[in-house]
Design a protein that fits this description.
Blueprint lengths: L2 H15 L3 H22 L6 H28 L5 H9 L15
Helix pairs in contact: 1-2, 2-3
């Protein structure tokens, strides 16, 4: 396997195990940039308009535009991390212990 393909697979898996929307958006940006790099390696000539449009789509839209737009929306909404949302739902404190409101007597 190519090292770039291994990097894409790694970037796909990291957001599954880390509870942060910021890291998920960073992974999305890196995926777009890695796909652009792979596309450029497959067709380095860039002699057609389609090749330039594909490269622009992968770098500007998928690698930079979409993650920045999603970051702006989530930051303006003050979205919590997935971990803090789960901890509130399950009634856990930051240490992982049950809070008094979630304990059953």
């Amino acid at each position: 396997m190519s090292p770039l393909v291994i990097a894409v697979v790694g970037i796909l898996l990291v957001p599954l195990f880390v509870a942060s929307w910021r890291l998920s958006l960073f992974g999305l940006a890196v995926q777009g940039l890695l796909m652009a790099w792979i596309g450029y390696q497959l067709d380095p000539a860039l002699d057609t308009a389609a090749a330039w449009v594909r490269l622009f789509d992968l770098v500007a839209v998928r690698g930079l535009g979409a993650p920045i737009a999603l970051y702006a929306v989530l930051r303006s909404q003050r979205a919590p991390t997935r971990r803090s949302r789960c901890m509130r739902c399950c009634g856990l404190s930051a240490s992982g212990r049950a809070t008094t409101s979630s304990r059953r007597t």
